[in-house]
Design goal:
56% of the residues are buried. 76% of the residues lie in helices and 0% in strands. It is mostly helical and 455 residues long. The chain is globular and about 65 Å long. The structure holds phenylalanine (PHE). Phenylalanine binds next to helix 1, helix 2, helix 10 and helix 14.
Length: 455
């Protein structure tokens, strides 16, 4: 079916493990930390609706494209893009898509590792029992004490980066596969438990209508871009993570079906996170857009503090959230690591450590921008905000756009249809989505952001 190449890095043991690993990549801080507060900042239901449209019309076709390119090329994104472009008779400059992905990955890790560090810190807080009967003011103070202390943030950031490097350095079967096998099902269970609790709170009905009743008066000029960026971020698209995972996928796995499973799981977790968090907010009288990036860290502990065995549940929850962040950060570091191994012949260990050190050092900027450098801004954004905005809202959509254009316009029909294994009608649908809908969507949204023609 595929071009009969194999990856020097190895292969997933089964299609299921690939689905778990890719879901592990997709489900992360993006779903449980970022989705709720971004939704809150952009007015709720209307944002959710636009987000879902972006997932289906733009995200899924691009995810199929990333997996198919990765499996066809069987190398890290930079080398896969270069090899496929050459094979199909196009410029090798297509490798720049992979290069930009490497940068995007580093930018993402700068803030990802900091927030993942918060989850580690909160595991410790849960053990110490500070959430018992805590009010909204108290949980807010606990959060502020953490982010205003550079030394603590540094310790957690460093620990998380070491955790990420230590798994990536072990490779696919010994490292990545072992990490995702149990963690993902456990995370889902705990999330369901939290939603169960939220359903008993008085704010549940209000939260339902907040999330699912679109109020377009709240939709501002850049709402659509934010929703698009969030769709890319949440599905791990546009920077080569899924392409890299795809390069380890067996030639017999059905890419479209696999993609749909990953998309459904990722979206369900985001919506469930919303259903866990907003009811609690409404119940304690907090307004959604008050939260910001600290939202779940300030809100969920209130609920835990009132539950029987709340500290135990809080500990389990933050542990699982940390695992979710961990399985995602693996996929952010993996493309650069694989590229370094291919390019320099470094051992995996050396490559993973080198990439990890760079990401760690860049993370210091995000770390300090939360406290000592909080006044230092560029374009009105702190370093943390700038990294988040640039990578999520600009680099991922642009990367995804180029991937779609390459897969849709520059790959031969024989190659893409062999990889996708679709019947004629479904293949045509993928082609239309990849050639026209996804690129046009991204271009229009980016132009609108640049020139603001929708007002
Ligand atoms: N999808 C991950 C999340 O939702 C983040 C991520 C982005 C992972 C890009 C890999 C690549 O948290």
């Amino acid at each position: 079916m595929s071009a009969n190449r194999t990856s020097v890095h190895g292969q997933w043991s089964s299609r299921w493990i690939f689905i778990l690993a890719a879901t592990g990549s997709a489900v992360g801080l993006g779903n449980i930390w970022r989705f709720p507060y971004i939704t809150a900042e952009h007015g709720g239901g209307a944002f959710v609706l636009i987000y879902l449209v972006c997932i289906v019309l733009v995200g899924l076709p691009i995810m199929m494209s990333e997996i198919l390119l990765g499996r066809r090329g069987r190398r890290s994104p930079i080398h896969t893009m270069a090899a496929l472009a050459e094979e199909e008779g196009h410029s090798k400059h297509w490798r720049l898509v992979g290069v930009m992905g490497v940068f995007a990955g580093f930018f993402i890790l700068t803030f990802y590792s900091i927030v993942a560090g918060w989850t580690l810190a909160y595991m410790a807080r849960a053990v110490s029992g500070v959430f018992a009967d805590a009010s909204a003011q108290q949980t807010g103070a606990i959060f502020n004490a953490l982010v205003s202390d550079p030394e603590r943030l540094l310790a957690w950031h460093t620990i998380f980066m070491i955790m990420t490097v230590s798994v990536v350095s072990r490779g696919i079967k010994q490292g990545l596969e072992q990490a995702v096998r149990y963690l993902m099902p456990a995370l889902l269970l705990l999330l369901l438990l939290l939603v169960g609790y939220s359903m008993t709170t008085p704010g549940f009905a209000e939260a339902l209508s907040y999330l699912f009743k679109p109020d377009f008066s709240q939709v501002g000029a850049s709402t659509v871009l934010i929703a698009l960026g969030q769709a890319f971020f949440s599905l791990s698209l546009g920077m080569g993570a899924i392409m890299t995972y795809g390069s380890y996928l067996s030639g017999s796995a059905h890419i479209p079906r696999t993609t749909v499973s990953i998309g459904i799981m990722d979206t369900s977790v985001a919506l469930l996170a919303g259903l866990a968090i907003f009811p609690i907010m409404f119940s304690v009288g907090l307004h959604p857009h008050e939260g910001g990036p600290g939202l779940i860290f300030k809100i969920l502990p209130i609920a835990f503090g009132q539950m029987a065995y709340g500290n135990v549940l809080a500990f389990i929850f933050f542990t699982l959230l940390m695992f979710a962040a961990w399985t995602s950060s693996l996929s952010i570091l993996e493309p650069v690591t694989a590229w370094l191994v291919e390019k320099t012949g470094y051992s995996r260990l050396r490559a993973a450590i080198s990439a990890g050190v760079v990401a760690w050092a860049l993370g210091l900027g995000s770390l300090l921008s939360l406290n000592l450098w909080s006044e230092v801004t560029l374009f009105g954004m702190t370093f943390f905000d700038l990294m988040e905005h640039l990578s999520v809202n600009i680099m991922l959509p642009v990367g995804g756009l180029l991937i779609a254009v390459f897969a849709g316009w520059f790959m031969s029909r024989s190659a893409t249809s062999a990889e996708l294994g679709l019947g004629n009608g479904a293949y045509l649908a993928w082609k239309v989505a990849t050639r026209f809908i996804a690129p046009a969507g991204v271009i229009l949204i980016l132009l609108q952001e640049l020139f603001g023609f929708l007002g």
